Amino acid sequence: MNVGDLVRETDGTRVGFVERVDxxxxxxxxxxxxxxxxxxxxxxxxxxxxxxxxxxxxxxRVLVCWTDGYPEYRVCVELEVVSEGR
Length: 86
Description:
By secondary structure, this protein is an all-beta fold. The protein has no helices and seven strands. The chain has one domain. The chain is elongated and about 50 Å long.
């Protein structure tokens, strides 16, 4: 996804143009995982069981100028490219 691309929401309701792409804005590739913590208890650094990959990984933040409204930021997985710009 690049600046100038025509995109639409994954549910197909709105169409717009990409104004800006912030690469690797959200997420992480791995995280500390704790298998069991009782409700209301503190989490301490020594309780970490494993370091494992995250479910969503790293995602881009995209500023989309919608044809029917104001520009807004969206996560890249909420959009699909209709046509390549330039």
